[in-house]
Structures are given as structure tokens and as C-alpha cells.
Amino acid sequence: MDTTYEHTHIPITTVSSGEGQEVSIDIYCYCIQFVNICLIGNPTSKSKTWFLVDAGMPHASDTIIQLAEDRFGTMTKPQGIILTHGHFDHVGSIAELLERWDVPVYAHEQEIPYLTGKANYPEGDSTVNGGLISELSPLFPNHGINLGDQVKALQADGTIPGLPDWQWIHTPGHTPGHISLFREKDRSLIAGDAFVTVKQESLYRVLLQTQEISGPPKYATTDWEAAAASVKKLNELRPSLAVTGHGKPMRDEELTNQLTYLAEHFDEVAVPEEGRFVH
Question: What's the pLDDT band for 206 if we cut at 50, 70, 90?
Fold first, then answer.
């Protein structure tokens, strides 16, 4: 596998629904409606090995498969699918993808119950302050899915089979088993919904893709103390590039300044004033 990790020359632009961006030579971010998926792998390498991070919205499998074929060729499939967590907008197309690709799915052990049909997430909390998406959130699917024995718990040592340069980091709060991915070599971070780069509660800001680092989506975050600790943990890594579950990628000084501010003022700027899970 090619181990060149140059990304500073690639500009960050707005990523809207149906648009993708190569944010580094082996990290490709693609927006499906209002959520991002990532393809990790260098398409110029001879091996063409790659991983999918998250599985987007429902009914997007054809789009994801075409995207993968365009990038890696028609005869390739991912070595695995890594889930940052199991909310419907991050696993929406996984069943259809697994019908096409017989590959393992990796998730944190605390997320496994939601991925094996044993537990459901709480319904969205419309009482948090923030915007129309918060108000509509109780209508979003909150049921778990059942991937059976295709889903496997990530190894406790932080390693990911087939991705030797990456480590997974437990970043709970948004969900109990939420994880982020980090590569020390170039300080690339795939943060899932531990924090996001758009105010996800506001439909207006989501449609405009107004970029600003924000805490995890308020309407679906169940443990704010853990969420604060997770943001502080990620800030201590001093990432130079962050791809989040919602919003466009961010890097360098802008990322450092905004993420540090969020970590230091989390209770003020991220935690809702009221809501089922605030206290």
C-alpha cells in the first residue's frame, strides 16, 4: 500500500449533497444528502485496497457502489466497513452494500447491540434548542439494525485490521460506542459526529453548508459529559485535517482555533439549555 500522506496542497471547498472531494491522496469525502461517508485508500496504488467509513443514508447503495468503482475500479471491494456509530444516517445503506460486498463490518463493542437488533436508540429530542432539524428529529428512524455475525467488535488495542497507520479512538457521548479514526503520521482525523463542522440542528445552515465547528448534533446526543470529554480528547491530538459526519472538511489553523475553542467552552456553546439528556 502506498504510504505517501501529502494533503496540504489540496484545497478544502464546500461539499454539498452529491458532491465528493479528495481531501488527501487516500481520503475521499462524499456527501449523501446531509451526511458524509469516507473512502480510505490510495486509488493510484497497485493493491487498490480501501475501506469505507460509514454507510450514509438509506437508498444510497447504488451511489456508493458507483463512487467506489469510479475511484478504485469495478473489480474491487472494500476490505471492510468501519462504522463511527449506528444512527440511521450513518448505516442507512449498509444492508444493501453487504448484499453486494461480503466484507466485515467493524464497530465499537458498545455499539454492537444497536447493530445486532438487541437495542434501539432513544428517539430524537425535539426539546433541545437549535432549529427545524431538532424539531423534526423524533420522526427520524431510531431502531437498531441486525447485521448478525458480519459486524465485529474493534480490537481493544485501538488497531484496525488492514489499516496499520490508523487507530480508532473511543469518543462516546453522541452514542455509547461512538468512535473516531486518527492517523498520527499526518494527523488526519475522521471524527464522525463527535463534533461536526456545521450547525446540524439548523436546516438553513445545513442547506447552505455554513462552516463552523459545533458539538455533536444536540437532538441525538445522550451523554453530554462524555461528549465534552471526547471533544477534549480529540483536541489534544492536534489534528491538522478533520473530516466530520456533517459539514465540509476543515484543516490547519482554522481547525485548531475552532476545535480548541469548542473544547474549552463546550458547556457554553455545545450543550443545549434544555433537553431530555442535559441533566
Answer: low
Q: How many residues does the chain have?
A: 279
CA atoms of 171 and 270, how far apart (whole Å) = 16
7/255 Cα distance (integer angstroms): 15
| The residue to which cell 443545549 is assigned | 272
Nearest to 149 by CA among 122, 117, 116: 116
- DSSP, collapsed to helix, strand or coil, labels residue 22 as strand
Distance CA 195, CA 230 (A): 9
Stretch 130-139: mean pLDDT: 86
pLDDT given at position 81: 98
List b or e across 208-247, with b for residues whose CB sees 16 or more CB atoms inside 10 angstroms.
ebebebbbbbbbbbbbbebbbbbbeebbeeebbbbbbbbb
d(CA 95, CA 92): 8
The pLDDT value given to residue 208: 61
Name the DSSP class of 196. Answer: B
Q: Using CA atoms, how far apart are residues 105 and 84, in angstroms rounded to an integer?
A: 11
* pLDDT surpassing 90 at residue 192: yes
Q: Is the CB of residue 26 less than 8 Å from the CB of residue 3?
A: no
Which contiguous run of DSSP H or E holds residue 73?
A: none
pLDDT class of 264 with cuts at 50, 70, 90: very high
Within 8 A by CB and 6+ apart from 150, the residues are 98, 104, 105
CA 73 to chain centre: 24
Superfamily of domain covering 20-269: Ribonuclease Z/Hydroxyacylglutathione hydrolase-like (3.60.15.10)
Q: In the chain, what are the domain boundaries?
A: 20-269
Question: 252: alpha, beta or left, given left = phi > 0 and alpha = psi -120 to 50?
Answer: left
